[in-house]
Design brief:
The chain is 69% helix and 0% strand.
Length: 90
Protein backbone atom coordinates (compact mmCIF):
# COMPACT_ATOMS: atom_id res chain seq x y z
CA UNK A 1 0.00 0.00 0.00
CA UNK A 2 1.43 3.42 -0.92
CA UNK A 3 2.20 5.79 1.94
CA UNK A 4 0.61 8.70 0.14
CA UNK A 5 -2.41 6.98 -1.32
CA UNK A 6 -5.00 9.28 -2.81
CA UNK A 7 -7.81 6.78 -2.32
CA UNK A 8 -10.13 7.22 0.62
CA UNK A 9 -9.59 4.59 3.31
CA UNK A 10 -12.53 2.25 3.51
CA UNK A 11 -12.20 1.71 7.23
CA UNK A 12 -10.53 3.06 10.30
CA UNK A 13 -8.06 0.17 10.14
CA UNK A 14 -7.10 1.05 6.53
CA UNK A 15 -6.64 4.67 7.57
CA UNK A 16 -4.37 3.68 10.45
CA UNK A 17 -2.29 1.43 8.14
CA UNK A 18 -1.84 4.27 5.65
CA UNK A 19 -0.94 6.67 8.45
CA UNK A 20 1.62 4.28 9.95
CA UNK A 21 3.18 3.62 6.55
CA UNK A 22 3.45 7.36 5.87
CA UNK A 23 5.01 8.12 9.25
CA UNK A 24 7.51 5.26 8.87
CA UNK A 25 8.59 6.41 5.43
CA UNK A 26 9.02 9.99 6.65
CA UNK A 27 11.12 8.79 9.59
CA UNK A 28 13.56 7.01 7.25
CA UNK A 29 14.03 9.97 4.89
CA UNK A 30 16.55 11.89 7.08
CA UNK A 31 18.65 8.74 7.54
CA UNK A 32 18.86 8.20 3.78
CA UNK A 33 19.75 11.86 3.21
CA UNK A 34 22.39 11.86 5.97
CA UNK A 35 23.97 8.71 4.57
CA UNK A 36 24.42 10.40 1.18
CA UNK A 37 26.06 13.41 2.84
CA UNK A 38 28.42 11.21 4.85
CA UNK A 39 29.52 9.35 1.72
CA UNK A 40 30.18 12.49 -0.30
CA UNK A 41 33.70 13.81 -0.78
CA UNK A 42 34.80 16.23 1.91
CA UNK A 43 36.18 19.74 1.67
CA UNK A 44 37.72 21.15 4.84
CA UNK A 45 40.08 24.10 5.02
CA UNK A 46 39.95 24.25 1.25
CA UNK A 47 41.37 20.74 0.96
CA UNK A 48 39.77 17.47 -0.05
CA UNK A 49 38.18 15.69 -2.95
CA UNK A 50 34.91 17.61 -2.65
CA UNK A 51 36.37 21.11 -3.04
CA UNK A 52 36.40 21.10 -6.84
CA UNK A 53 32.80 19.95 -7.10
CA UNK A 54 31.67 22.48 -4.48
CA UNK A 55 33.42 25.38 -6.19
CA UNK A 56 32.47 24.41 -9.72
CA UNK A 57 33.39 27.30 -12.02
CA UNK A 58 33.03 29.91 -9.27
CA UNK A 59 36.38 31.68 -8.98
CA UNK A 60 35.33 33.43 -5.75
CA UNK A 61 34.74 30.09 -4.00
CA UNK A 62 38.03 28.75 -5.34
CA UNK A 63 39.80 31.82 -3.91
CA UNK A 64 38.13 31.31 -0.52
CA UNK A 65 39.22 27.67 -0.52
CA UNK A 66 42.78 28.69 -1.36
CA UNK A 67 42.86 31.22 1.50
CA UNK A 68 41.36 28.71 3.89
CA UNK A 69 44.04 26.19 2.96
CA UNK A 70 46.77 28.76 3.59
CA UNK A 71 45.35 29.64 7.03
CA UNK A 72 44.66 26.04 8.09
CA UNK A 73 47.51 25.69 10.58
CA UNK A 74 46.86 29.05 12.26
CA UNK A 75 43.13 28.35 12.49
CA UNK A 76 43.73 24.97 14.10
CA UNK A 77 46.10 26.50 16.67
CA UNK A 78 43.50 29.10 17.61
CA UNK A 79 40.87 26.39 18.05
CA UNK A 80 43.15 24.35 20.30
CA UNK A 81 43.96 27.41 22.42
CA UNK A 82 40.25 28.25 22.69
CA UNK A 83 39.34 24.70 23.74
CA UNK A 84 42.11 24.63 26.35
CA UNK A 85 40.97 27.97 27.74
CA UNK A 86 37.26 27.16 27.78
CA UNK A 87 37.31 23.54 28.89
CA UNK A 88 40.35 23.37 31.16
CA UNK A 89 40.19 26.61 33.14
CA UNK A 90 37.06 25.91 35.16
Amino acid sequence: MCAFSTSTPSSRQDFMKQLATGVASMALLPQITNAAVLRSDKCAYGEGGGCDSLAGDNEFIKELQRRSSEKKEATQKVRVMYNVHVYHTK
